[in-house]
Structure formats: C-alpha cells, structure tokens
Amino acid sequence: MGSYSEFYGRSVDDAEAFWAEQAGLIDWQTAPRQILDASNPPFARWFVGGTTNLCHNAVDRHLATRGDDAALIFVSTETGVERAYAFKELHAEVQRMAASLIELGVGQGDRVLIYMPMIPEAAFAMLACARIGAVHCVVFGGFASVSLASRIEDAEPRVVVSADAGSRGGKVQAYKPLLDEAIRLSRHKPDAVLLADRGLAPMDLVAGRDHLMSALRARHIDTQVPCTWLDATAISYTLYTSGTTGKPKGVQRDTGGYAVALAASMKHIFDGRAGETYFSTSDIGWVVGHSYIVYGPLIAGMATIMYEGLPTQGLDQQPDGGIWWSLVQKYKVTVMFSAPTAVRVLKKQDPALLGKYDLSSLRALFLAGEPLDEPTARWISEGLGVPIIDNYWQTEAGWPILTIANGVEKKPSKLGSPGVPMYGWRVKILDEETGEELTAPHAKGVVAIEGPTPPGFMQTVWRDDSRFVKTYWSSVPGKVVYSTFDWGIKDEDGYFYILGRTDDVINVAGHRLGTREIEESISGHSNVAEVAVVGVADALKGQVAMAFVVPKAGTAASDADAALALEGEIMQRVSDQLGAVARPARVRFVTALPKTRSGKLLRRAIQAICEQRDPGDLTTIDDPSSLQQIKQLVAP
Q: Angle, nearest 10°, between helix axes 515-523 and 560-578?
C-alpha cells in the first residue's frame, strides 16, 4: 500500500478521491452522487445522494458468507452468564426488536432513548433503530434521574428502552425507579417504555405505557423487518456529552459517513479481519461503545465481546484479576481496546496473571479515553509482549484522530504519545492568542483541526447548529477551526503529545502548566500506582497544583510519617524534572481515586472538593467513598 505519509497526504490533498475509495468498504443501495459537500463551512456533508443502512452493513451482508460465525459474545461476571450469538441469530434478534419498536409506534426519524446495562438487548435495540431508520440515543445505564430527564427532554424520544436493573461489583442498581422519576421530571413524556426483565430488581409497570420486552419478542418471533435505506446524511444517533454549561450537548452523527469511517478504521487502524474477535472493554453509554463494541467490529465481520462486570472479578463472582486475559485466550481475541485506568487497576493485581494465559492471538492492545502515562504503558507492554497503541479522539470525532495506522504501515509507538494524525484529519498546533500555527518541535499550543472534517465526525449539535459553531469553531482567534480544547505539542517526528485540557490548565503565578506533565512526572516514582493532579484556587498564586496519589505499597495512606517522607520524594522529583514552579502545593495519599464506572477520573469533582465547592452530578461515580476520603483530607 506504500508509506503511511503518502496515504495520509492523499487523504487530505485529494480527499474526495480518497474517501470515494474507502466508500467501497461498505454496501450501498444507491451510490453517492457527490462525495463531499463543503459548501457551508464548518458543516461537511459526506456521500450526498448515497443510500445505505448501518444495520445492513453490520449484520445482513455477512449472512451469506459467515451466518454461523460468532457475531456478539456476551459475558457477564455479574450474573455468571456467557452467551454467543451467530450473525444469523443476531439478525433474528434485531428483527424481533425492530418489530417490537414498530408495534410501539416508532418510525423513521423518531428517537428511541436507550437506558440499559451492558446486555445483548442493548445492542439489539441500537441495531434495530439503525435498521428502521430511527435515531437512537444511548444514556449511560444508572445515570441519575435529573440528568436522564434533561436528555429525555432534549431528545424527545417516542420510546425508551430500559431494564429492571444493572449490576456492578455484585451491587444491583435498580434502573426502573430512576427512569420513572426521570419521566416524571421531564416535560416530554415518551409514548411507551420497553423493558428487559433480568430478574434482578422488582418493577412496577405503568399500565398502557410500560411493556415487557419478552412479551413483544414472543409476538414477533418470526417477523421479518427489512432494512430501511437511508440517505447517507440522515441522522444515525445522538450521544450526549457534558459541556461548560449545564445543558448537555447532543453530538449528532450521520449514517453513511460514519459507516465508511468505521469500516476504514477497522482496516487501516485496528487491522481487524473478518472471522476474528474484537474485545472493547468500554460501555455503550460512551462513544467507544458505539464505534468499537457494536458497529465497527460487526461491519468488519468480526465477533465482538460485550462485557458486563469489573476487570477483577470472574464468572463465579470470585476475585479474578485475569478474567480479561482468560477471555482473550478463550475467544482468540486479536484486537483489544481498553482504557489506561483499567490497566492501572490491573497493575495492582498479581503480575503472574499476565503470563498465565495463552495470549498469542492478540496482535495489539489499544488504549484511549485519557492520557496514557509512560510507566503504565511500559508495564503492560512488557507484560503482554504486544504493541500497546495509544489513541486520541473524542465523542465528537467518532473514531481516532491521533494513533498509529498499522494496517497501512507498521510504525513504532512512542511512550506518552497517542501517535500521528490519522488520514483525513488536518491536525495543527495553534497559538491560543494569535491563532498562528506552531511548527517548531515541542511548541505548546491548542490542538485544532482544520475543516472540512472527515467522514464520521459529528454533523452538528442536535437541534442547535449555532451552538455547534459557537462552541467548537469560534474559540481560536481569526480562524474557523475545530478546537479540541486540549493542549498539545508535536515532536520532530510528527508525533503528538496531549498535555491536558485547555480549561484544566493550571496557571501558577503566570506560569501555565498542563496537569498531564505533572502527573507524568509523579507517576514515574516507583511507589506511585495512580495520580490525579488538579489546579486549586490560591489567593497568592492564582492557582496551585494539588496531587492525589494512590501509593503502590507501604503506609503512606494511613501513617503521617510515611506520608510526609513520600510527599517529599515526589515533590523533589517534580522539581528536578519540571522545575520548582510545577511542584504541587501538597501531595495527599488516598486508597482510591474517584472515577466513573467506565474508569474516567472525576478531576472536576476533585477540584471542586478542594475549593469547597459543590462537586455537581456524581451519578456515574463508581466508589463514592473515594471522594469522601478526599473531602476529609482537604477539610479546613
């Protein structure tokens, strides 16, 4: 295929010809008549005039050649269930779900809100919506009622698909009461609620509104529901992401551009091949779950593992830090996608677990969702003996912006860097004051993307074009460019490094410091398992850095003398590596850092606690006691 630099060059210099080729990776009912319409920047419309269907490309087109091959593998260490669906079984289940939604009044363009745990029915519902041209909106299972209500109001779904409960770490969380309260709070009332009953929590059904999935499925056991062919520019789904204001932003995705982007990424980035198995440990409440649990692997003809549970618990509900590696062995996983936080959790387990299983099928482990620190990358790389490929993207992007495209040309990863710009993405480092491009190696600026954006990128903010333009395209002076709101640098080889959010930058006495740089320094200490650094308001310096560290060993989290000694070592390390200005005002030791259930650090909540402010919505927090510990440490 030639070098990646040639491949990339063609993707940005002759974008229409390049993406016309990539469009051949999916099935079209009607071929596009125009590859790109960029006549109304910053909006980009891809594959105009073409008609296709995401569900057809993910399921139906594989039936003739691999109908009996595994498509969806469900593993729940919460309920001890393990079940594989072949493509033809998945096809049947999706049609039953589609017929159920149609019976409840759902038609093309209607919204369906999905509020589900990680169970097969959630994937059936997503694919069923895609099949009939309904717009699906997945909200993270267990989200608080007020947050859920705001999304119901904004999306105005005709139907909500939910379940009695989810479970995490053996703790059942009833969803139905949260959903009932959300509907009560919302000005918009859905016509119907379709419920999976797992037998985990009792449910009170509302007569005329609530329907059991099992009853409708039984009615439609043999119903055939053909795919609705949609314009490439038709909306496939919306996914809410938090913004700087209280109102969540509905990231809106198209159909044709998204299908092509995912098909291309499975080939060029993930090197995934039909008949193999893909394992993403994410959740369908996040964009990674849409792109790389459900649509991407299935479009590529791969089996995809859908996992419910912790990375440290076995199918027998007993502690097992090797559960993921046992699944890699059992299902011959070739491509795995997880998050740095998950790896740091596994880092605390017995290192012998990495050598216990046959991982010879695994070609690469991809990590994303937050910056990957060098010590964690090195530990997992040495333990697995396969390439560890960081990648950087956002809900808005839909697929990786920065990574390594080993499916095009094998290139080395650099520890600490997510990689180089992927084909189609015109990524620049810009001066935040002037908007000028910074081309000198290691010059620090805002990571921005020049339009037109490639296929798969968000179309707009749901029902709010002006917010799309104002939020994303208006923050860099004198330039209409998409701001990622991340600081970054680029080295002499073109590899990018992400240094933290522009809105999380610590300004210490006029010195601007990225939280990532300080965390990277601290995490290199031999007794640091995890670290979070936040900027805390300070009357003298404007802000100071505050570090919260989970020590690997010893008594620093409970013994004052041990804590003082370790704090001194860490501060000296930061001073030596980054200078005295970057040294944290305090290093505090905790047994756990507050995170969401998907493993993202709740930095803003930590910062709010430190500043004696309300930490806001904490419904996705995994362990509330972790935040309580910080509260006690910083109490005045």
A: 120
Contact indicator for 337, 280 with CB cutoff of 8 Å: yes
∠485-489-492 over CA atoms, to 5°?
155
What pLDDT, on a 0 to 100 scale, did the predictor assign at position 50? 98
Q: Could you give the C-alpha distances from 629 to 168, 233, 553, 567, 600, in angstroms and in order?
A: 21, 48, 18, 18, 18
pLDDT of residue 482: 98
User: pTM, whole model, 2 decimals?
Assistant: 0.87
Distance CA 284, CA 561 (A): 45
Q: What are the start-end ranges of the H helices in 279-399?
A: 287-289, 296-299, 323-330, 340-347, 374-384
Rounded CA separation 377/367 (Å): 9
- Listing DSSP states for 180-220 in one string gives HHHHHH-SS--SEEEEE--SSS--PPPTTTEEEHHHHHHHT
Whole-number Å distance between alpha carbons of 371 and 340? 7
CA of residue 398 relative to chain centroid, distance: 9
Nearest to 215 by CA among 185, 194, 236, 188: 194
Residue 363 to residue 407: CA distance in whole angstroms: 11
Residue 520 host element (H or E): helix 515-523
Name which of 183, 144, 141, 143 is nearest 163 in CA terms. 141
Q: How far is CA 60 from the centre of its chain?
A: 26
Q: At what angle do helices 374-384 and 340-347 cross, to 10 degrees?
A: 70
Give the residues of the chain that fall short of pLDDT 70. Answer: 1-2, 242-246, 503-505, 510, 512
**pLDDT of res. 247:** 72
- Cβ contact 136:237 at 8 Å: yes
pLDDT value, residue 246: 53
DSSP state of 228: P
User: What pLDDT shows up at residue 242?
Assistant: 64
Indicate the helix (H) or strand (E) that contains 72: strand 70-76
3-state DSSP of 403-435? ECCCCCCCCCCCCCCCEEECCCCEEEEECCCCC
Cβ atoms of 609 and 532 closer than 8 Å:
no
